């Protein structure tokens, strides 16, 4: 499997390098769908310029990256393009390895279940065969690397984070890094914990002491690394300025630059009296689904991670297409759910149409002056609805497959005729 | 006609302010407790327009900075005196301007001012909370001058670090006591002129202030009224200080709108009034007419004739003025009114009009780019001196909603990169303070220096737009301050008889003069949201969030079940009856 992966990496790097050289790079790095005030390259350069002028980058309102990023790019300024391409490649490789690992797990579980005779006979066609699963990691990597959104984000030099899970300590550290970069990956703490518990065969039972022991251990590692990162940032710049500038900015949404999310126009048109209330509601909305989803999906942490990443990408305060590409990279893992998906055609059509309409309506509003902000806002609404439909569709399909695995594929009603399955 | 040239000595205590014909210096009588002088300078411009500059100066020997309580106001206006003592103001400079001064056509003004309102104040070092005091001061001044100075808040106030040094005495170096703000959108009208006139000792009843009638003054291309308060020295040793209040009014009347195309100007034509008497409270009341371009009377004819003539070096140029002394009854003649008339002669006799001295420092500013997302601010600074380079201080205060990217700042002269030797940049904070950029630039001789910086336009909350959002947002003028080397002083072809030992080093009078140039204000459009939509947007966005919530809620709380069709209505009623009877259900 190494050779196709290597070939894929080469192709991806070539495409990115080619795009960097063209004038499209500048154009793409200005697009609001791709960059947000949190992760725009122009702002990183501005922060570095301010640092050169002996002014703290956080004294103004232009720079909202964490101090680690400043210092990283202070040294890598000239190699920025290579850094981003490398980051993309590393992410792809990490995803590849992770998915491969996951597949092994799934296969093993399946074998156990088969041997334990827990699956009704007619569900055999739902079982996933090794051959089909062989190519999934590659497909995942491919999805990630060749997704136009990812390419475009790389070219725009976004500084999106990524998550790798392997050993517990490493996962805690990387999760802390991702949370440090933007607060939302905090919700991924729970699925990561569940996954590790599953690997170690610790049952998720609140009455078991081993569960609590491991949970506390993991939380301790996670919080510890987070604290270390924050203190390190303090010592890098000598002040706590970065806390309100980075985390205050993410949570209080002062910058209303248009993007593909729901926050900007909502808070541009909000009555002042209710601003704080709706801000709290929207921010809680991102974190709110963690607990119910974890309870429902405690046996399937990887799907939980997928759901969490998707929900973060839809409901975060400054989303970009880079966030989108991250959860879309996971879609090949759930290829087997295809037969249960209900709206996939509609959703893909809407997503494609919206992606095409975003730049058109932006141009009409900002440059031609013939449309107004409502047009662009409508497309963001549609885009969010399509993403929500996609995620809930996959969730429905996943739950349905699980139901079939336990209850049989061809269900019959009491009188023997073919039954339909509904949610009640 | 006897022409008397009087040599005047500068008042050593007062730093030379551009456009200030020197006051007479009587050697013997001690200075009075408070003193009022008024003057009017009329300068015909090369484009046919005429420039009139009024200055009213009150000097009061009260020590505002000491502990003694100041009372018994006579000539000094009480409202201003109370403001100065209450807010511990050292210097106050406020100006209201309508129109933009066209430097290349009109030359340099005596007192430059930017379009709109400008206020800058030096507080005394006894003030503990400068920002709070500034806020109160702007509100009080807004009441005194009937102007919307209450719009001055932290989003348009800056603290310059090098420009705007004190114009009075005092060696202050701590710029934390300085505040500067402009309101480029402010409009000047009669409501601002009336309280301004009320501050004068004679009001608008006697002296030069009778000419200040608003229907003529505002029918002009340029109108600027200002109040400057600063401490000055009382005597050459400067043991005690007095407070000087200068009220200035500059107005330029257009040849075609006010002059009906005919190049003939008189006091009556300009102000629809004539002068009848000097202000009784004034120690000196004079009218100066600039006759430098008319030494033998070949360009225009000035009537009534006056024997008094004076010379002064103003803005690096030696000018000659005819003087009318209003304290002398003879100036008014038999009709007891003075109406100066300047009538231009037709140039049949091929007299070449003298070339206007090209202003040595001049600047322009504009916005480049297209669309509502980004843009660039270009500032062009021209140095027209033939062989001398000199440094200038450029101060730009840009509102926070135009996000400047300082890494895109480029300064180039004659096509080459020109690095500023001093940059002070304070980035803006959203909704709190504006950008402040101060640079010290060296301008090469006879060159154009271009300063470029890119910006991004922000989307504001719908309540932060003005009622006419598509008019655009104003960016206040940039200020360029410089010590310009005088061309006149370098004139080595001086016809004056001088011994050789005094003429080796080029340090004659006015070797360089201080000049401040204001650029145009900018008008920038920002992207606007739809103002009719707040309720709709809230509903629609909450609907999308609810769609997400609803789908996930359904999937989380419901389980899959086989769909058993529910029995029809008849069967259900029958089942109810059967249950009563205790019979098995259908």
Automatic annotation (TrEMBL), chain A:
Record keywords, A-Z: Endoplasmic reticulum, GPI-anchor biosynthesis, Membrane, Signal, Transmembrane, Transmembrane helix
Listed transmembrane segments: 82-99, 143-166, 172-197, 218-240, 246-267, 274-295, 340-362, 374-396
Membrane topology note: Multi-pass membrane protein
Pathway: Glycolipid biosynthesis; glycosylphosphatidylinositol-anchor biosynthesis
Subcellular location field: Endoplasmic reticulum membrane
Broad class of where this protein is predominantly found: endoplasmic reticulum
Listed GO biological process terms: attachment of GPI anchor to protein; GPI anchor biosynthetic process
InterPro entries in the cross-refs: PIG-U (IPR009600)
One Pfam match: PIG-U
Protein name (database record): Phosphatidylinositol glycan anchor biosynthesis class U protein
Source organism (scientific name): Gadus morhua
Name of the gene encoding the protein in the UniProt record: pigu
Automatic annotation (TrEMBL), chain B:
Biased composition (Low complexity): 13-22
Pfam families recorded: Gpi16
GO biological process: attachment of GPI anchor to protein
Region (Disordered) residue spans: 13-35
GO cellular component terms attached to this protein's record: GPI-anchor transamidase complex
Name of protein: Phosphatidylinositol glycan anchor biosynthesis, class T
Organism: Gadus morhua (Atlantic cod)
